[in-house]
């Protein structure tokens, strides 16, 4: 349906179906008509049978629900009033990143997103999009053709790092932890849908992804993975059919961040386009971790903006060409093998699969190798090593197909070992608005911050007292000036990087004035500029009036002998009086002016009508 509630071909999904420990209970059952938002090409190698996974269809979203992040520091009561003024209400919150799940009239999602996005107290508003792989299954062992490990030079990297102790969260459909190549690799995870610890795979996709990252290797069984000794944290974000909402993904990332994850992988389509997921990714960065996402399998250009919080990965083939199914665009950071990848399958077997769903975990595995090689590296340093050591493909430098290039595990690990362990450079930070002056009520405060290794948090203080922290760019705050004493006040912002370095802004001086204006008791001044008092007139006479006020004039009236002749809401007025219809003799011209407070000023003159 469109914003006015009329049916459209996009068919939004009815029901707000997902359950998280911090948001709200499951509401209703999912529609059976979920689109294919992440297509995966599956090849059953030995039998030469091919199953093609369909391309993404029309976008779908939560019916009667959107995601909204207010400016940091906006009081809850003010946010509630804002939502009520638009006919909406908050029904839950992704706590660490302060993204609110907001109930809106079904069918009004687009209109509400637009309206709330225009409010200066809101950082962003977006629909809660649903993305989903098709629930199909294939299982075919093939152990001697793991070309992707050779292509990224993983065997050389393994001489230095196997990913020991690094925890990689698999945000997906669950993971088959009983698989022979995955048993013993798992750490406790969470089921965001059912709100329990049962993270078994309801679809199969998650087990494929997990095997690419960290299947047990050098054990004489099945397949080898990128990061042999990394630990896997299963976080089920999907509905029973494999679909997942952006809100559940963000909830899963924050849960993983709070439970020790170093890397999070999300192999779903169009995740890079979600401001909510980006905020969650920045939260993991603030704890030293990184989020890797699949570029998507549309096979075409995607108009998604670059995200500094996410690492978006396109897929390459064994000949270092962009895979035909891989999406591309300005948001691509890296490329990695994603065609004909052999991995673990639900139920204990193995499968050969294709898709950016597998270039993403390949990259997540390389990140685990880098982190284990040098535990002192911050997330921005790890990211920079990935980009700098990638094998450049396509046009020289960054391009929209391969990003900075195809990942090279060996070069990345070698660079990580040699990287300086200490970052002593503090972030730079500036309050860009306000820059001074008098303020009252709720004051928007904008801050700019940058760092050589990346800013993880910006905090705002007023008169030395903490106001709020913001984890994501743009750094935007709402300052309730009514909580400050009247008179001079000082604003200061602090920016922090992953190494703990702190940058301090120059102080901004403001004047707080929340006192109500004194009542206006001064009436307007009004004058009749022509004709003059005592003058003789005849024929058609032009009457000119003028008024002024300490605040403003809202009405000016002209009278002849007590009868209203003309009126305006301006402070000047001209009207014509035909004296031919008046008796000869003395007549009174008067003027009346009114201001916004209701004060009235008057004046009058007398003129002598001498003839026709």
Automatic annotation (TrEMBL):
Residue ranges annotated for the Peptidase S8/S53 domain, each copy included: 163-405
Residue ranges occupied by any Fervidolysin-like N-terminal prodomain domain in the UniProt entry: 60-126
Keyword match Protease: yes
Keyword RNA-binding tagged: no
Listed InterPro entries: Fervidolysin-like_N_prodom, Ig-like_fold, Pep_S8_PrcA, Pep_S8A_subtilisin_pbac-2, Peptidase_S8/S53_dom, Peptidase_S8/S53_dom_sf, Peptidase_S8_Asp-AS, Peptidase_S8_His-AS
Any single biological process term in GO: proteolysis
Record keywords: Hydrolase, Membrane, Protease, Serine protease, Transmembrane, Transmembrane helix
Regions crossing the membrane: 33-54
SUPFAM superfamilies in the record: Subtilisin-like
Alphabetical list of PROSITE patterns matching this protein: SUBTILASE, SUBTILASE_ASP, SUBTILASE_HIS, SUBTILASE_SER
Location of the active site: 172 (charge relay system), 205 (charge relay system), 357 (charge relay system)
Example of a GO MF term: serine-type endopeptidase activity
Family matches, as Pfam families: Big_7, Fervidolysin_NPro-like, Peptidase_S8
Family: Belongs to the peptidase S8 family.
Name assigned to this protein: S8 family serine peptidase
């Amino acid at each position: 349906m469109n914003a006015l509630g009329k049916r459209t071909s996009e068919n939004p999904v009815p029901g707000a179906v997902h359950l998280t420990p911090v948001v709200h209970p499951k509401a209703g059952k999912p529609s059976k008509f979920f689109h294919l938002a992440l297509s995966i090409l599956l090849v059953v190698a030995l039998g030469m049978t091919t199953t093609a996974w369909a391309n993404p269809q029309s976008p779908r979203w939560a019916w009667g629900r959107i995601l909204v992040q207010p400016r940091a520091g906006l009081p809850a009561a003010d946010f509630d009033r804002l939502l009520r003024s638009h006919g909406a209400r908050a029904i839950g919150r992704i706590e660490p990143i302060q993204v609110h799940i907001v109930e809106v009239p079904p069918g009004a999602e687009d209109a509400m997103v637009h309206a709330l996005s225009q409010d200066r107290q809101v950082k962003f508003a977006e629909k809660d999009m649903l993305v989903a792989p098709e629930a199909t299954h294939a299982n075919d062992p093939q152990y001697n053709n793991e070309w992707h490990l050779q292509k990224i030079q993983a065997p050389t990297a393994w001489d230095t790092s196997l990913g020991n102790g690094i925890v990689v969260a698999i945000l997906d459909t669950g993971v088959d932890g009983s698989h022979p190549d995955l048993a013993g690799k798992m750490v406790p995870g969470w089921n965001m849908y059912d709100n329990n610890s049962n993270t078994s795979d309801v679809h199969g996709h998650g087990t494929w992804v997990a095997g690419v990252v960290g299947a047990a290797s050098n054990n004489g069984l099945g397949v080898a993975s990128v990061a042999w000794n990394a630990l896997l944290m299963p976080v089920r974000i999907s509905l029973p059919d494999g679909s997942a909402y952006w809100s559940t993904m963000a909830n899963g990332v924050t849960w993983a961040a709070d439970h020790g994850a170093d890397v999070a992988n999300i192999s779903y389509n169009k995740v890079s386009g979600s401001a909510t997921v980006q905020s969650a990714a920045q939260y993991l960065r603030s704890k030293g971790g990184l989020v890797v996402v699949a570029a998507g399998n549309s096979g075409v250009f995607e108009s998604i903006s670059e995200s500094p919080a996410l690492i978006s990965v396109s897929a390459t083939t064994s000949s270092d060409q962009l895979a035909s199914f891989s999406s591309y665009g300005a948001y691509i950071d890296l490329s990695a093998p994603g065609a004909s990848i052999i991995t673990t399958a639900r139920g204990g077997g193995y499968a050969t699969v294709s898709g950016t769903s597998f270039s993403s975990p390949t990259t997540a595995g390389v990140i685990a190798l880098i982190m284990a090689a040098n535990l002192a590296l911050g997330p921005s340093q790890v990211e920079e090593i990935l980009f700098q050591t990638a094998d450049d493909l396509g046009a020289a430098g960054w391009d929209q197909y391969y990003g900075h290039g195809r990942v090279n595990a060996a070069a990345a690990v070698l660079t990580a070992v040699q990287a300086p362990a200490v970052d002593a450079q503090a972030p730079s930070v500036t309050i860009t608005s306000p820059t001074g002056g008098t303020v009252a009520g709720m004051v928007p405060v904008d801050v700019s911050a940058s760092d050589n290794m990346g800013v993880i948090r910006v905090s705002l203080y007023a008169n030395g007292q903490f106001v709020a922290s913001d984890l994501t760019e743009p750094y935007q705050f709402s300052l309730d000036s009514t909580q400050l004493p009247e008179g001079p006040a000082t604003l200061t912002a602090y920016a922090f990087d992953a190494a703990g370095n702190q940058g301090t802004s120059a102080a901004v001086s403001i004047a707080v004035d929340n006192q109500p204006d004194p009542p206006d008791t001064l009436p307007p001044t009004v004058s009749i500029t022509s004709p003059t008092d005592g003058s003789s007139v005849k024929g058609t006479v032009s009457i000119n009036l003028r008024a002024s006020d300490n605040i403003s004039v809202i009405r000016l009236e002209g009278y002849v002998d007590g009868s209203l002749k003309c009126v305006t809401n301006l402070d000047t007025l001209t009207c014509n009086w035909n004296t031919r219809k008046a008796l000869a003799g003395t007549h009174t011209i008067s003027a009346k002016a009114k201001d916004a407070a209701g004060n009235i000023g008057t004046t009058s003159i007398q003129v002598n009508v001498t003839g026709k």
